[in-house]
Amino acid sequence: MLSTLRAIGNRVFKRSSIQLLWRVARTQGLAGIWLRAGILVRQGFAYGHWVRTHDQLSAADRRAIALHLRALAYQPLLSVLLPTFDTPEKWLRKAIDSVRQQCYTNWELCIADDASTTPHVARVLKEYAQLDPRIRILLRPDNGHISASTNSAMAMARGEFVALLDHDDELAPHALYLVVANLNANPRYDLLYSDEDKMDAQGRRFDPYFKPAWNAALLESQNLVSHLGVYRTELLRGLGGFRSGVEGCQDWDVALRCSERIAPQNICHIPFVLYHWRAVDGSTAVHHGHKDYVKRAAQRVVQEHMERLQESACVVPSVGSFVHPVLALPMPTPSVSVLVWGSSAPAVPVPDCTLWPALEVLPCTPLHSESLAQSINRVVRQAQGELLCLLRSDLQVDDAQWLQELVRQACRAGVGSVGPMHLDAHGNIRHAAIVLCARADAAMPFHSPYQGLDSAITGVAGRAALTQHVSALAPGCLVLRAATWRQVHGLDAGQFPQTHFELDLCLRLAQSGYNNVWTPQAKVRSQVDPKSYRTAADADEASRFRSRWQQVLQSDPSHSPNMTLDSIWPGPAFPPRKEIPWLPYLTQEPARDLP
User: Fold this and answer.
1) SS3 515
2) What is the pLDDT of residue 8?
3) What is the pTM of this model?
4) Is 421 in the same domain as 469?
5) Structural domain count of the chain
6) Are 534 and 577 in contact (CB under 8 A)?
7) Cα 217 to chain center, whole Å?
């Protein structure tokens, strides 16, 4: 309990958090502060309960895993890379023991010590090397920092894949097993990554990061892969390994460079907490994000990534240790057609876009017996813009640059549609990155995390403040290419004449291979209650939408199956909605020689 409260206190009393609390106090009063404090406390205790009930291996689980392993045809050698330097003996032993206690046994541990000045490190490493022949050690004569020492460890690796482990952290006992289970499902995977959390000196776990499926846009703002990260050895060696000069972000740099060379379908997210960062004084988990050299390295690795992609961008600091690539507008500036629809169109004043060189504003007023979706499709056929902006008539903007940010993203290769953050009349969040869900009792087939909270919040792992790929965008405002609109044949006015047509459009774009992008860098505001836009047709259209998109509604890839679908602040789901690979083997009779 004390460790949970301490972890919550560390999060609350960061300088940035104090600034946010002051803003909340000014805009929402003590009630707003009480709400945020309550959320943090509940989430802290909820995760401890979640770990105890949904993330502990029982003896039966271990037997089932052993049975599953016997059935797996592909059991590659996995090389765990462990660079060490002056590691406290207690944490070094725990890190090594976490590898030796793996359910999967076909591994090797390659340890490269970076010329430690404390004599116990070499002594402990030699002890373990004698104890277990799978442990290989190298004592570097000179200190070259973490990139050089990780490369030394990789030089020893004989496995098809390498897994990265920091010298004071721990792997979950089923970590390597789940890597191999996923490789059996798809041997073409080149990169696999898992969820992660932190662990205090007493071994108590807190602050989980339940990650989404592969999200290239999010990787450009934060190290989504991080730990546990597993790479095909041939791929990593082909890149030249880890680069010196980007210490503090060397893992992020590797993830970016690898992602440039492999197809998204060859990247696998494993939705299990398989890695525990050691959060004690002096550890990376505590101090990593506060070091200036780390922030500079973050900007550098993402800036160079954008240059390798031949995209013009200026990478600037964002929240915490994250960054934001500010994309350059294409030249000449593309023309945009803003299609204004809704109950008050066309009398709505369109936000200030006068600085835009080529802009047309077109009202979408349904003609006699014409549905709203039909009217939008008709007006689009008249539009001259290279880009289309569908804008509901009640939405207003405070920033004259709102359209620029949406257009920047929409012009990127592979992007389908782009949407902003939606605020309410008080400037609080109405819709951030929405989550699709299949609840039949919900008014709409999506949930809006952080709804009602201050727009300055950063959310879980910063995701409320970072540009990212999403499955669909909140209705009301989206930008896309006119050519892409034509490719997917616009809105499906037959199935969704009055509502749900934007959600359906987003999912059809994703089905066609495009990415939908949500960016909090652009914001729109509304004084109108969204319920006022619902019609008698909503129930029928909602039913058709759920029927058409049942699979994605069951598991939104932009949201973790370990997280709630209906909370203001996403927390652990009870129970998680993920598949358990060893579950079918729990009912089988264990062999006599299994533990």
Assistant:
1) strand
2) 43
3) 0.90
4) yes
5) 3
6) no
7) 9
